Amino acid sequence: MKRGAQPTPVALDEVDLTDLDRFRDNLGWGQFDTLRREDPVHWHPEPAPNGGFWALTRHADIRAASRDADAHRSLPTDDPRQTAVRALIAREFRPHRLRQNYGAFLRELTKNVVCAALTEPEFDFVQRISADFPIQVLSRLLDVPKEVTRQLVAWSNAAVGITEHLPCRSPTTQDVIAYGRALRNARRRGDGKDLVSILVNRVPADGVPLTEREFDSYFLRLLKAGNETTQHALSNSMLGLIEQPGQLRLLRDNPDLLRTGVEELLRWASPVYHVRRTAPRDVQVAGRLIRAGDEVVMWFASGNRDADVFTDPYRIDVTRPKVDHLAFGRGSPQVCLGKALARLEIRLMYEELLPRLDSVELASEVTRVRSNLVNGITTLLVKVRSR
């Protein structure tokens, strides 16, 4: 489906949100449109051993469910322990802290990444920019040597779909956990300011030190929060700007629009398709009874295309006055930890990149991640002419 165009309609009885090939082929949007219109709180069967889930696809229902921490929980360690542990590093991701601690580094890194990519008239945007840039930032946040950066990229790419809700037996997860533990052991009782040192040497507000399991979980989460959201948001938004060149020119010629326009790019890119939770008690959603123990999937990407909230939702409009998007699970206790970092990285990248582009176009077919969890692009070959 070309960006800006309406998706192909899908009959309700043909909707299958577990068919990963449809998402690889960018065909999920027509299913979302059908569900929002005909069955916004939809019981969706699943192959064994899973028992099915409720699919929430309207913006209002997703927003309400995200805010209700008691009705929909994703972790057995939700409040208050989850809040206490999360607060250890959440402070480091606040906008003013990021600007204070990493602002100059981020600006210089952005310039270097852009300049290196634009030395070639044709390159893979994913490889040279949207994957490379955030992982270098993450390396700085974790204070790991440059030679480890490539390994972080490989782990992150292999980690699509991996949950931080342990145990997880995949080889990638175990490799990441082993590396995280080695960093933890090396920095224990040190005075480092990096995120690993903070997790190791500071005690949450409830006075209980992190368990090994909690450390492992948060190290996995940092790998995702510091890289995945930014990578997929950059790739998808760049594709959208290429296919809707009027918006690219508008941002290029009016860079101040990026301060608010980045929210529209995030809405449109929707880097995370959904979050899945379990209802610990009976709850009514839009007149449907969801019982305790039922699985509930909130399709953030669908909410970001809800025409009741966003006029002409399949079109990028960087002048849109109010962009109440759900790209980070807005209102949720499990809202994306790296949201402020992602916003800053995306804005800086386009501030540096767009003024240097005289033209940009696709050089080949786009290939996508085969996933209904992350809305990711694996290959985005572009031809550019620099100014």
Automatic annotation (TrEMBL):
Protein name: Methyl-branched lipid omega-hydroxylase
SUPFAM superfamilies, A to Z: Cytochrome P450 (SSF48264)
Pfam family, one: p450
Recorded superkingdom: Bacteria
Organism: Paractinoplanes rishiriensis
InterPro entries registered for this protein in UniProt: Cyt_P450, Cyt_P450_B, Cyt_P450_sf
GO MF terms, alphabetically ordered: heme binding; iron ion binding; monooxygenase activity; oxidoreductase activity, acting on paired donors, with incorporation or reduction of molecular oxygen
Family membership noted in the UniProt record: Belongs to the cytochrome P450 family.
Lineage summary: Bacteria, Bacillati, Actinomycetota, Actinomycetes, Micromonosporales
